[in-house]
Amino acid sequence: MTYTFPGRGLGAVALILGPVLLLAGTLLRLPYHYFFPQQLIAVAEQPARMAAAHTLVIAGTVLLAPAVLSLAHRIGQTRPALATWGAALVLVGLFERTFHAGIDQAAHGLVRREGATFATDLVSQSYQDLHLFSYVSFTILLGWPVLAFAAYRSRVLGPFRATALALTCLLPLGVLKGTEITSVIAVAALCAAFLPTGLRQAFDGPRPTRKSVLLTLTTLPTLTALAYVSTLG
Questions:
Q1: pTM (2 decimals)?
Q2: Which secondary structure element, helix H or strand E, spans residue 43, and what is its range?
Q3: Is the pLDDT of residue 2 over 90?
Q4: What is the pLDDT of residue 1?
């Protein structure tokens, strides 16, 4: 059997959890205006809620990478060129969103330590600064429609779910962006596109062997310990 990353199990988990976590984080910050001054005020007024929203959004964003690779593998069986272009564009866009999340985290820290006014002034001074990802922001908008077209042409997704996948491009891009109605539409559409595929992938094929289950269970405590050590510096 030929192995391809991320494999059936991890791919299924990513296809299911990625959109669900992203939707949960998106809904958590729904009451606040999406632009950065209001987002920073929200961090000052509701720090726990906004921290949870930020964590869920970035966790979902990271999980979308193996989800996209899993989908691209299926597309590539019949449409390799389209699979390559679609996956490449979406992945660069996801990397950019992760980069933005790092800036968001730093701004949230400024709010906690110096207050929302100081953080807003500093962010406003540097908001238009150029960096590498400034030149590839188009991938966030273009990647999902290209991947959706590839999924449709390869018959991996039907017309309804391919259209839903394309609507993911409506998710606002940039630093310290909150939630607006188009955000909810975009992430709900992503759920409609990915969840059925993830569930089908999870239940299709052979069940995990006892050896693989035991290996996973014995690895989890080690990963938990490493996660704690990672926070120490």
A1: 0.91
A2: helix 36-45
A3: no
A4: 58
